[in-house]
Amino acid sequence: EAQLVASGGGLVQAGGSLRLSCVASGFAFDDFAIAWFRQAPGKEREGLSCIDIRDGSTYYEGSVKGRFTITSDNAKMTVFLQMYNLEPEDTANYFCGALRGFLVSRSMALCLTRRDHEFEHWGQGTQVTVST
Question: Taking the CA atoms of the chain, what radius of gyration do you get in angstroms?
Answer without folding.
Answer: 14
